[in-house]
């Protein structure tokens, strides 16, 4: 009998080293009790010897390389790092991070020196069997995508990306009015000229305003569709991994949501998660929006649409480039704290005022001869009440707060027909 135990967390946005206190020790002991210990590593590593990109994934995510030792000391032995911050410090930031991960013998997936490297599964050998990890992001600037190597041109370093298309459906009569209004202006002149000159594909089955696609439909609304070429590439990776490993995990970073409902996944993410399971993945591990989304059980395998945060030190970054200060009309005399205060309006808006960003849960399960019988949820508190200096550090929740967090996750999961049993501050989901 083969039994492989797995624990998974959401985003580790670590910018400062963690104190080696009792909370750290308890987390370490829990994590290290598993064979496979996964986190999403949402930070770049360098000593500010590289150039920043002109825009970022929200914050120019960076930490000194020493923080990697905290991740390793906590016991994590597999990580993905394809996310919206992968290209915050240009290609040199990608390469310095990759070098630090490689030099520390970390098993990491989702980013590579070209698309083939970024797409390939990475493997961990445990005494009970081999586990594969494939890392993907859908939230990233276009120049952060890894590109394929050609016989005559190098591939570009970057992330393994699943693109998607938003399609806005309007009633036929409104569709015609939309075209009439747009064509009264020059708003679409670049698109039309680029199509005429062959720089953009002509529209088929819809109408574009810039890059925004409209289609006729009896029911108005918006849907998102995954890019078929990207999906086919990722499916090939999953099928390769399924032949080479006993367990396959897919990590997907996606901030995309259903309308304004941040705690609900976008349509394409739901479709993609099921495609991963159909292709051989044992679990889909989502993250990105910095809050939890629900859990769906599909063909007796878990889909975690978002595991929220594990570490979130977004407001403890050491330095930011000039573009960060420009966003808030600040100058060279200003500091990081000035910029953070401006962004949060002195901590009255944004992620810092949302307690759900600072509470989460680790998930754990065992794969026994390819089957999963039960999932355990162990809730976390990230110190929302402590202020900027200490906020974002994880610790196991007390029973009262833990059960409240689990009830929230249970409510999010009802949409998918998933029932979570809560007892003594721990959640369980039976799959039998």
TrEMBL record:
SMART domains registered for this protein in UniProt: PGA_cap
Pfam families: PGA_cap
Domain Capsule synthesis protein CapA: start-end pairs: 5-314
Database matches in SUPFAM superfamilies: Metallo-dependent phosphatases
Coiled coil region boundaries: none
InterPro entries in UniProt: Capsule_synth_CapA, CW_Biosynth-Accessory, Metallo-depent_PP-like
Family to which the UniProt record says this protein belongs: Belongs to the CapA family.
Full protein name: Poly-gamma-glutamate synthesis protein (Capsule biosynthesis protein)
């Amino acid at each position: 009998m083969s039994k492989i135990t797995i624990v998974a967390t959401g985003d580790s946005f670590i910018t400062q080293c963690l104190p080696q206190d009792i909370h750290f020790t308890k987390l370490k002991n829990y994590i290290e009790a598993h064979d496979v210990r996964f986190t999403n590593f949402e930070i770049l590593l360098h000593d500010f010897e590289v150039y920043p990109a002109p825009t970022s994934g929200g914050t120019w995510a960076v930490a000194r390389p020493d923080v990697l030792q905290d991740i390793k000391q906590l016991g994590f032995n597999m990580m993905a790092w394809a996310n919206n911050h992968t290209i915050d410090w240009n290609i040199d930031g990608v390469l310095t991070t990759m070098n630090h991960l490689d030099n520390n013998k970390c098993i990491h997936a989702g980013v590579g020196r070209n698309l083939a490297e970024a797409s390939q599964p990475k493997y961990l050998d445990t005494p009970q069997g081999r586990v594969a990890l494939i890392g993907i992001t859908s939230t990233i600037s276009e120049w952060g995508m890894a590109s394929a190597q050609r016989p005559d041109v190098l591939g570009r370093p970057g992330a393994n990306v699943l693109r998607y298309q938003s399609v806005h459906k309007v009633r036929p009569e409104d569709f015609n009015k939309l075209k009439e209004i747009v064509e009264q202006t020059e708003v679409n002149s670049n698109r039309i000229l680029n199509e005429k000159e062959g720089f953009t594909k002509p529209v088929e089955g819809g109408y574009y305003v810039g890059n925004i696609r409209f289609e006729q439909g009896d029911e108005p609304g918006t849907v998102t569709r995954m890019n078929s070429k990207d999906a086919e590439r990722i499916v090939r990776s999953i099928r390769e991994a399924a032949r080479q490993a006993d367990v396959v995990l897919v990590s997907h970073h996606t901030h995309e949501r259903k309308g304004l409902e941040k705690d609900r996944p976008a349509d394409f993410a739901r479709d993609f998660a099921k495609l991963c399971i159909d292709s051989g993945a044992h679990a889909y591990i989502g993250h990105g929006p910095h809050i939890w989304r629900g859990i769906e059980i599909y063909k007796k395998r878990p889909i975690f649409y978002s595991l929220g945060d594990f570490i979130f030190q977004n407001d403890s970054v050491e330095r930011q480039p000039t573009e960060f200060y420009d966003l808030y009309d600040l100058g060279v005399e200003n500091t990081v704290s000035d910029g953070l205060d401006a962004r949060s309006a002195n901590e009255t808006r944004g992620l810092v005022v949302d307690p759900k960003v600072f509470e989460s849960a680790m998930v754990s399960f065992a794969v026994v001869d390819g089957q999963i019988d039960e999932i355990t949820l162990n809730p976390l508190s990230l110190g929302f009440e402590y202020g900027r200096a200490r906020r974002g550090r994880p610790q196991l929740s007390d029973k009262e707060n833990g059960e409240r967090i689990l009830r929230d996750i249970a409510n999010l999961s009802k949409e998918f027909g998933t029932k979570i049993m809560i007892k003594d501050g721990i959640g369980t989901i039976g799959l039998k």
